[in-house]
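FORM 12-B: Structure-to-Sequence Request
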């Protein structure tokens, strides 16, 4: 399977998309990475969805990628008797520790550890800031608030407290339990919510080891301030604009987004722009013009991927949302007048052998009119570095490790392929590389390809070899 675009699409699975047929339709429509949102849904549903996703690999001869998104220390209200209630401006509304279902007077708020840090006049923002509550009375078991605007509140909506520093660990007990289940499934990426500093990533890495890559979600102002150290510590970055836009002034979010993408490009780490990208498509068949521009601008800025949340999880048109996002990306990437993501070589710090090889591969591919750059990579690092260069030709990430193959599906411009055999010498390397791209119809006879690998073969972090090969029609292939 070959996508006709370089930027990738993530789709969140939920009630609207948790069945085998729709998951396959999302995949064929253009979804590159499936997000399992552990903030919602039953673990058994996540397991079944994971199995459905993996079953697509053999059928479509294309590796799949699964990202498990941990809830993190997200503050949420409980559930309501009628699922939702209308709150009226000026009325009193209580958040307490009672486990009884809520109504229009009160609701469960099971976070007793933060009650003492809230004082009269503290502002609580519910449901991405759509509901504003001001604390008027505080005790150890309840918070009495005044409703500041007419709004609808419903089950499990998130609560942000932007002006108060809360002593909460980035990894909750629920997260630790969900993490174990996700790793047991075999997910490829783990997203950590509400990261504030690099130490949050280091703690998670000690728990995960090499079982999965870590995606740091940027949704707090402190994370924006510490972005360079967080990018260095994590394997990838997600700009989660929902909570970020609540925690900081809305007008600052676009600037933060552009700066974060720029820093991720600088360090060669993949970055995802997420939240409310095609929000109106939860109910409508077409997005607003502003939403289409939002997706397009993220692609122009050079993001590796864009993500659908409610659009594919609870929306009425999940397949159409993926198709629409796919069309927007293709259109932008075909805009030769404005779309140029090349960055200057002198922006790279501490160039090593891998950097030198990827820069040379880019140059050779451009000058030789090669149709593809093929990277042999055990760990995926070389392929990630090649994606950083935003080469004008397709990048084929080839790995003998299926885990690496799956993880690389998130990288910009990378068609990730699994090889059942690893090369023992340069001749085998060329033969394997050319066989794979020819069999998958990624190139045609007569095309030239640039191949990078490492000697000794099969060792991670040793990229030091570059070959230019030609695809020919006979069995010898080169």
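FORM 12-B RESPONSE
SEQUENCE OUT:
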């Amino acid at each position: 399977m070959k996508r006709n675009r370089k930027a990738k699409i993530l789709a969140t699975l939920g009630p609207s998309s948790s069945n085998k047929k729709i998951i396959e339709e999302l995949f064929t429509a253009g979804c590159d990475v499936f997000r399992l949102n552990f903030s919602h849904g039953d673990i058994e549903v996540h397991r079944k969805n994971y199995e459905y996703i993996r079953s697509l690999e053999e059928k479509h001869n294309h590796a799949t990628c699964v990202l498990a998104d941990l809830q993190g220390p997200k503050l949420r209200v409980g559930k309501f008797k009628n699922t939702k209630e209308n709150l009226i401006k000026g009325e009193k509304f209580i958040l307490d520790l009672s486990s009884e279902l809520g109504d229009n007077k009160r609701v469960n708020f099971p976070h007793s550890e933060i009650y003492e840090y809230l004082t009269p006049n503290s502002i609580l923002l519910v449901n991405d800031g759509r509901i504003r509550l001001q604390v008027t009375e505080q005790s150890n078991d309840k918070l009495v608030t005044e409703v500041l605007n007419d709004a609808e509140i419903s089950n499990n909506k998130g609560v942000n407290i932007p002006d108060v520093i809360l002593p909460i660990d980035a990894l909750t007990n629920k997260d630790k339990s969900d993490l174990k289940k996700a790793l047991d499934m075999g997910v490829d990426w783990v997203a950590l919510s509400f990261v504030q500093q690099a130490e949050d990533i280091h703690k998670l890495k000690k728990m995960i080891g090499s079982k999965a890559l870590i995606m740091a979600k940027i949704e707090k102002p402190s994370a924006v301030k510490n972005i360079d150290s967080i990018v260095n510590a994590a394997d990838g970055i997600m700009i989660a604009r929902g909570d970020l836009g609540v925690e900081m002034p809305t007008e600052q979010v676009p600037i933060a987004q552009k700066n974060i993408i720029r820093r991720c490009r600088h360090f060669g780490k993949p970055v995802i722009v997420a939240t409310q990208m095609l929000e109106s498509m939860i109910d409508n068949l077409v997005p607003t013009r502003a939403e289409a521009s939002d997706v397009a601008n993220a692609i122009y800025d050079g993001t590796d991927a864009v993500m659908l949340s409610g659009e594919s999880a609870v929306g009425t048109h999940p397949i159409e949302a993926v198709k629409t996002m796919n069309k927007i990306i293709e259109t932008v990437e075909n805009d030769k007048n404005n779309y140029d993501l090349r960055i200057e070589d002198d922006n790279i710090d501490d160039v090593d052998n891998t950097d030198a090889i990827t820069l040379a591969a880019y140059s050779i591919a451009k000058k030789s009119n090669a149709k593809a750059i093929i990277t042999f990579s055990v760990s995926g690092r070389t392929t990630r570095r090649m994606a950083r260069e935003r080469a004008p030709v397709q990048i084929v990430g080839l790995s003998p490790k299926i885990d690496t193959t799956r993880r690389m599906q998130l990288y910009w411009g990378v068609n990730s392929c699994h090889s059942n055999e690893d090369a023992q010498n340069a001749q085998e390397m060329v033969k394997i590389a050319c066989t794979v791209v020819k069999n998958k119809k990624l190139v045609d006879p007569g095309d030239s390809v640039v191949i990078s690998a490492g000697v000794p073969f099969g060792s991670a972090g040793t990229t030091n070899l570059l070959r230019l090969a030609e695809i020919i029609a006979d069995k010898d292939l080169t």
